[in-house]
Structure formats: structure tokens, C-alpha cells
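COMPLEX REQUEST
Ligand: 2-acetamido-2-deoxy-beta-D-glucopyranose
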Amino acid sequence: GVVVTRELCEARNCCFIPASTASSSASRPSGKNGIPWCFYPPEFPSYSVVSLNDTLLGQKATLVKEVKTYYPGDILTVEVEMRYETDKRLLNHKLFSIKITDPSSSRFEVPISVPTVANKTESPDYIIELSKQPFGLVVKRRSTGAVLLNTTVAPLFYADQFLQFSTSLPTQFIYGLGEHRSTFLHDVHWNTLTMWARDVPPTEQTNLYGAHPFYLAMEDGGNAHGFFLLNSNAMDVVLQPAPALTWRTIGGILDFYIFLGPDPGSVVQQYVDVVGYPAMPVYWALGYHLCRWGYDTSNSTWEVVKSMRNYGIPQDVQWNDIDYMDKFMDFTYESKKFDTLPDLVRDLHAHNQRYVMILDPGISSTQPEGSYWPFDEGVKRGVFIKDAEGKTLIGKVWPGLTAYPDFSDEVTHEWWYDNLKMFHNKVAFDGLWIDMNEPSNFLDGSTSGCPSNNLENPPYTPGVLGGLLRAKTLCATAQQKQSIHYNMHSLYGLMEAKASRIVAKRPFVISRSTFPSQGMYSGHWLGDNRSQWKDLYTSIAGMLTFNLLGIPLVGADVCGFSEETQEELCVRWTQLGAFYPFTRNHNAISPQDPTAFSPLARTAMKEALLLRYSLFPVLYTLFHHAHVHGHTVARPIMFEFPKDVKAYGIDKQFMWGKSLLVTPVLDPGVDYVDGYFPEGLWYDYYTTCVRLPLDSHSCLLSLCVFEQAPNLTLWVSTGQPLHLVSALSQDGSASGDLFWDDGETIDTYETNQYAYIIFSIAQVLSFMFLFCLFV
Ligand SMILES: *[C@@H]1O[C@H](CO)[C@@H](O)[C@H](O)[C@H]1NC(C)=O
Ligand SMILES: *[C@@H]1O[C@H](CO)[C@@H](O)[C@H](O)[C@H]1NC(C)=O
Ligand SMILES: *[C@@H]1O[C@H](CO)[C@@H](O)[C@H](O)[C@H]1NC(C)=O
Ligand SMILES: *[C@@H]1O[C@H](CO)[C@@H](O)[C@H](O)[C@H]1NC(C)=O
Ligand SMILES: *[C@@H]1O[C@H](CO)[C@@H](O)[C@H](O)[C@H]1NC(C)=O
Ligand SMILES: CC(=O)N[C@H]1CO[C@H](CO)[C@@H](O)[C@@H]1O
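STATUS: Structure written out below.
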């Protein structure tokens, strides 16, 4: 981080409070805990409102600043458009959005489609107060008066490469702001979260694979609100103990949304309504996935599959990492060591299992002309990202020197599709794992470096790992169809995922790099973690955060990716992983699939996976609600108990939906768990839930949870009878639901090819009535 000194601070006309003299009684946040504090004085040059007019959807203001600040490219006149949005759906009166632009020249805007609204709300849930001189905005919750946003605490900056505003926060309880490795609840004590997609093993205080400028906040009294800055440029989000938050981005515009909730689940729904609803996954996406970097041959990959079958351990999907490729080149397979790959895939299909392999964006650029169609054809069609001079930019990844497809261009999507189709004719894969799409580069920028200018070396560089925008990626000046890489960088994974959804049935894509709206196109795994107990624990926060970001199909590498796992850790991880929405065992060193361990461990893992398979109807129904209503699948306890402040920091337990609470073992050498149970009547799923066997022709029921007889694959399991597992509340009632369709046809909900069944039980005078409603 940047060292704050009196000189640096005062050079910017700011006030400085050294760490030692800071007084904790001051109302202004001061240099507590040895951290000095630099802030803008009230008289710092800022914008004033010079005109304010009503519009169809709200108001429009012109802001003018008289005096330039020290940032180059200061824009002295900006326009603010405030929209009091309403919508025919659930979001009525709950959304307020603001767009601040430069009226004299158009600036980069993130190319994702957000809903356009037609009408202005007449009775919003919020009150807006505009401060004219200096410009500032206060947003209050009408029902409680809580101040959700107050930007008058610091001046607005709107320079070409430096856009900043700050707000006080009504709470210390802030979540979201991915992708970072941290506890689920963020620390607001001088915590800078930098966003800029980056290939790096998950590390604290570091920008990771994806960028998600969205937070959810819990207010006093259990209300929740959300805030989304739709901006893809490199940025810092600085959490301060006041509590306060500063957004600092180096490009684009300021375009933000406030979601009024008022409960946390509704905030996520309102966010997802803006960025896009997650796709309904193909049913087998929810099965057990097995992968390894280091299967030397297709035969050894196959051996594991056969061994899993022999031991009766569920497995729906087998994967390969880059080992399968010929010299690590996309759309090839190593014909000697992986000679039987097409046969393996046929065998998987014959057993109702699936095959997924990795694809990296980098396309080898050094093969003899005429020998590697993907590159030759790509050059011909002009699909690759260009350097500042218009030549194909060359970087380096696993196959050596590579060019990078520009997925912001439709032409590239066609070329990508053609490649996939040709490869599919050889190896009939079922889904794609798109890795290295930050995009990752073993070099900084390109083989020939990058130009020296203000895009490569902006006046201010956020706290990105490596200190340079081009660190282990492409030059900021690289040219893409829709804009320069400086603007497009963190969108690469999103655009590649979009290009990769190309099959007739529901596509299966797992992406490392992600951006808001990614859930429409892919799931995500939490990256190259380690086989350590700490990584087991932090995976829960990662999973919960991505559910909050509208990407519910998420999980960590079960048993850990790097370093050697231990048997006990791997058992515990499989038990937790059985409750990841997406569960894949993957690693880089010795085999760590369930069959590699002792009979005791193997059996424990098998039981955990059978439990997951028996709960498939629950999980599948939760994904339906994510797809249609923007609900979370795995969710923090506080989503269901928003008034219970004790639940706000919990990230060692989580829930599936409303009624299933998971309390995993996260420490070595223990055979018990300490968990928190919010008020209510809780049943032990294993011992006290009532199981009523019902065949599939009867009325199907779901209350506490819903089970099916598990089997080796979900295809077989879903043909088994369903059981109702009921857990009644104190008054003897319970309810639940089930979504059921063919599991793979696209848009079954949208085209009415599904069954949706709602159940409720009421107990009157010791008779139990079962109600069943088919919708
Ligand atoms: C508001 O209206 C006035 C007078 O009609 C006009 O001069 C001004 O440009 C308008 N301002 C904005 C922000 O549209
Ligand atoms: C907008 O308002 C008009 C007129 O009051 C109404 O007919 C229309 O249905 C509204 N549209 C939406 C999306 O609410
Ligand atoms: C907003 O912040 C300013 C500056 O700290 C403060 O004077 C003002 O009272 C705040 N407004 C509200 C509504 O809290
Ligand atoms: C894989 O197994 C097949 C069938 O047993 C065999 O013909 C082939 O040689 C093996 N491939 C390798 C690389 O060992
Ligand atoms: C799968 O189903 C078959 C046939 O019903 C049964 O024999 C087998 O035991 C089941 N496997 C498991 C793991 O439950
Ligand atoms: C190989 C690998 O991914 N290991 C990394 C795991 O993460 C730590 C930091 O959290 C790195 O130091 C390791 O290199």
C-alpha cells in the first residue's frame, strides 16, 4: 500500500493526522491503531450544482468546478442523471440509480445490458437530498431515516483517469466486493480492496481473478441495502472505520445503483435484476466432478473413473486439465498418451456420465504455417487482440508464445464456435472449463513490452499486484473491438464465457475470471487454493460471496489444489464440498480422488456424496429460484435471520435455502462441531427428521428437505423414488416446494415444460394433513 506522509498529504491540500496524536474521541475517523489519516478539508475545490431540471425518470443536474485539482485531465463540467426507477416487477420503488458523465465527450461505458425502465416511481422507499454547494448526495431510507449514502463527506473527483467519491456508511457490516480472499464479513478498518482481474493463487489483500464492485450492507434493525458501481476499470474500494467507503476508479463513468431491499435476500434479487439472472444449470452440473492436473494419460484418467464405479462412489463428471493437449495447445489432444480419450468419453456417456476439459484463451502463435488451424484461421479472420500499433499482440502461456482472442468481437465468437465444433467431432466433450482468462500472461504486457504513456502508467494506479496494470497480463494499450484493454481487461472472462455457451442443451461452463452478470453464462470455482485447513474454512466465505454476486454455481477445489492433501483434511473437505453448489475435487500433485484413500476415508467420502445426491431435488429447486427470482442457493444464516446480529459475522456455517443449516468440521483432530443456532425449532437431519417413503406416483412432498434414493449418477438417481423428510414447526406446520423438469432442455421454465409443486402440512388435533398443489 501507499505510505501516507504529511508531505504527500499536504502536497494535495489535504489535512494530515499522524498516527500518534490521533484521538479516538474525534467524530472524524482518525488515525487509530497506528494508521495516519489524510483527508480533504471542507474548502477543497469541488463541484457545485449550477442547474437542476426534472426529467421523465427523475432529475438531471449540471455540475461545475471552478478550480482544477492536482489530477491531470480534470473535467470541470459534468452531468448527473438521477433515476427514481420503478418497474412492473418486484423492484417497485426500491431502486435508485445515478449516472455521472462528461457532457462534452463520450467516455467508456461497460457493455453489459441493464434493464431500461420506462416510469418514474411516485412513492419511493427512499428520500434523496441534494447538496448544491459543494455537490453531494444523501440517500435515506424513508421508513427508518437511516442514511444509506452521504457523499458530502468528501469532494467528488472526475478527472479523465481518476474518478472518486466517498460516502459514510450506516453500518460496519459490509459484504460482497469480490473477488478477494477474506472473511465473509469485511473488515472496515482501513481495508483497501483492489479490483483488476489477476491470475494469482488466492491471497489476502490482493486483487484476484474477478471484479465485482457491489456491496451489501446490514443496517441497524435488520434492514439491508446494496450498492453497485457499474465500472470495469482498475479500482480501489477503501473501507474506513468511520464507517465510510471510498470508490476510486481510473476510467469509465460513475454509474451506480442503490437497492433498498429491505431484507438481504431482496437486495440480491434487485441486484441480479439489474445485472442478469443466473442460468439454470444442466442437472449433472450439480453432481460430483473429478479432475486432476497430472493424469498422465487418458488410460490413467479412465482408471479413476472405473475405480469410482467399482467402489460405488457417485461421480457425474470426469475432467482433464491441460495434460490432455498436444503441447498445451487448445483444440488438440495428445495422440499418444491420450490415444483413448475419445473412447473414454464414449464410455462415460454409456454410463450417463459427462466429460469436461480445460481451454485456455492463449492460442499458440509459433506453429508452422498450415499446421494449426486455430491460429492461421484466427489471423485470417482478424480475431486476435492487437497491440497499440495494430499488430497481433503476443504473450506467453502454457503452449509458449500465444495470441489472445478478442471476445468483444462477434467474429471471434464464430471462430471460437468453429474450433469447438471441430474438436467436438473428435472428442465429444459436454462442457468447458475456461481457465487463465484474466487474461493471464507469463510476461508483463507482451513479448515486446508496452508503450510508455498514460494508459500504461496512469497518474494513479490502484493497488494492483505487481504495481502495474500490465503485470502478468496484456498491455493496457492493447486494442480490442469494443475498446482498449485498459477498459476491457476485467471483462475478458465474462466475454469468453458468453462465447462458450454454444450447445443445443443447457451449456456447462466454469470460468476463473468473472464480472457482474457472469451468472448468466457460467459458474466459477475459487481458484488455485492450497490443501490446508485454512483454505477449507475460507472456501465458505468465497462460496457465500459469489452467491451474493449472482453466481450461485460455485465451489472450491475439494481437498485443495496445491500442496499434498492429508486424508483427514480430504475427508472433511469432501463433507463440506458435498454442500458446495458446485463440487469438484481437483489438484496438482498426488491423486486425491476418494479411491486413493483408506477404506475408512473412502467410505466417509462416499457417504457424504450419497447424501448430496439424495438431496439433489432440494439443490435443483434452489437453482430454479436463483434462475427465476434471483435467490441465493448457499446463503449465510443472516439472510434468513436478518435481525439476529449474532449471525452477521458467521462464515463457518451456512444454509441451503431457508431450512437446511450446514455446520461442517473445519479443524483437524476433532469429531464435534460448535455451531450457532438462531431462534427456532431445529432438527438433526440425520436422526430426528421424519422420513415418509413415497413412490414417485404419489404426491411428492418437501418440507424440511426432500430426498431421493442416491445412485452413481444423477441420471440414475433422479429416476428413483422420492422421499419426504418433514420437520414441523412448533405449531405443527411446514411447507416446501419442488421444481422438476427434464434437467437439460434450455428454458423449460420460460416455455412451460416443467412441474412445480408446493406442499404444506398442517397438524390439527393430532391428524396430519398433507396438501399438495401442482402449479
Ligand atoms: C435545464 O433547463 C435549462 C433551461 O431550460 C437549460 O438551460 C439547462 O441546460 C437544463 N439543464 C440540464 C442539466 O439539462
Ligand atoms: C408506465 O406508466 C404508464 C402510464 O401510467 C403505464 O401505462 C405503463 O404500464 C407503465 N409502465 C411500467 C413499465 O410500469
Ligand atoms: C452528511 O455528511 C456531512 C459531512 O460529514 C454531515 O455534515 C451531514 O450531517 C451528513 N448528513 C446526514 C443526513 O447525515
Ligand atoms: C491405453 O489402453 C489401451 C487399451 O487397453 C491400449 O491399447 C493403449 O495402448 C493404452 N495407451 C497407453 C498410452 O498406454
Ligand atoms: C444404484 O441402483 C441400483 C439398481 O437399483 C442398485 O443395485 C445399486 O445398489 C444402487 N447404487 C447405490 C450406490 O446406491
Ligand atoms: C501452487 C499454488 O497455488 N500455491 C499458492 C497458494 O497460495 C499461496 C498464497 O495464498 C501461494 O503462496 C502459493 O504459491
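REMARKS: The first strand starts at residue 15 and ends at 17. The chain has four domains: 6-39, 48-275, 283-525, 647-774.
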